[in-house]
Amino acid sequence: MKFIKWLLALVVTLILLVTVYLTVFFDPNDFKPEIVDAVKKQTGRELVIADDLSWTFFPVIGINLGGVSLSNPEGFTPKAMLEVNKAVAEVALMPLFRQQIEIAELSLDGATINLVTRKNGTSSFDGLSGDNSKKAATPAAETSSNAKLNDINIGGISITNTQINMIDEAKKQTQVFTLKSFTLGEFALEQFAPIAFEFSATMPDMTVSSEGKGELKLSRDFTQLVVNGLKIDTVVEGESIPNKKLETSISLATQIALDKQQLSVDIAQLSAASITAAGKVGVNYATKIPQINADFQVGDIDLDTLLPKTETAAATEQAPAASTPAVEPDLSALKQLDVKLKLTVKSIKVANLSTQNWLMDVGIKNGVLDLTKLNADLYQGKLLVSAQVDARQAVASYQFDKKVTGVQIRPLLKDAADVDLLAGTANFDVKGKGRSLIPEQLKKNLLANGHFDINDGALYGVNIPQMIRSAQAKLKGDLSPETKEERKTDFSSLTGSFSLDNGVATNPDLAMSSPLLRLAGKGTANLLTEALDYRLTTSLVNSLKGQGGSDKDALAGIDIPLAITGTFQKPEYALDTKALLNNQLKEETDKAKEKLKDSLLKKLGGF
Questions:
Q1: For the whole prediction, is pTM greater than 0.90?
Q2: By its UniProt entry, which Pfam families does this protein fall under (predicted)?
Q3: What H or E segment, with its residue span, contains residue 296?
């Protein structure tokens, strides 16, 4: 027992002697000029330590400093790049002898960082890495790699009132990022420690505020970092934000394999405005281009609610015509991506168009975006799309294959374009390719071929039987007012093929069948001007009985010409009465010829 007492007394005496020595003979302020001079030689910057440095001793050894500032390069405004109000670092003394680090406290308060980019391109970072930086880093790296620690314990880390000002003199913009607080609770290897932060940012067009909390754990061999129960709530406000305000919330867990440079994120819940989602993300950042795999499940998406219609329409009406030519979108960033994404969405509504049960597979690699599959339910039918965008050249190229089956075409056209033109069950397929993503060039350069058929439908805006009756009556000299009937022509099938070149869709074989009519024709639809130019030929199958006609119409079997002009929004239908009269006269002439022929044959047979 006496030996132990004497040993403890000896240890305490040694600590006291070290404390006295450091206090009396080793004043840290004596090194301030050397530190300032070293920084000046290394970076060319002025380091100022205004407050006196002070020691803390047993049971912890540490240092307190304040009033620290590091200047920006000469001529910059503000003059200071870094200002620190107060910093404290305290380490437990005794565990150091056991190769253990116990940090009692690490705190930083009132730090301000001014990062300036000038008009000539120079910035606050210029000159910070001196000529000897690489040489000095090598031995430090070797020392750290050889050092072995048995344990690390941190009583707590606190960073408060830290502000970063990013100043761009060329754009005359200042962005302010404020870390109001960051705290790490009591931390030890292989144990979870609580973390929390509060952050805000002010930018020219928006403000952001965010706060979060969770817990993290670091493995003893420093190869695994785990973050659990991290919940982050963010509010973004600004004129460019949908409805000027967007609130988001995310709950996730993350695992990082530091040795393999791999990261996995499990997102339990993600919400933004009225949109909710969940999913997983995996990242391998050991490769030159990080590999990203993501799988998300998303609920209902109503994009229309995020865009104020009245303000958007007003802005569109008041917007002046663009005077500068459109330029190709810069898709060079796709070359730096290696992404695979699987996405399911319960429903999407955009521009009043509703779709359900989306299933999408997308890949991006080497500057090529592959939409290998996109399936969705569309107005009681199915949508199936595959597509590719090649951004390896300055002007992107693309190709696609699209199929629509069993879709109710009338509500689709009404919702998508407010056009009441067709009804029926539609099937549609088209394959195409082109270059350029500028809207006008996209229409001009697109080459496509397709086919469509619509069954058990109706053509709205025109009543062909009524037009024929009216024309028939006028041919007979009846100029009485037309009876008002619904402007609709029913049909059993409407089919055709089409090609698209230089912005013009050409349909050479339009055919429509109904119990009363047969319609055939051809024409064009200009996607650039939205102009329609169709010439159709209609013929009565037998009679218009049941459609207001007699048992045997005089026009039965006669080809009746019909023209469709105008635009997509306002199609115009007209009956070519002159051609109709010529056709009828020809029919009557042919009948007269037949009668005359029969009469002559009878007379000749009488001899």
A1: no
A2: AsmA
A3: strand 291-302
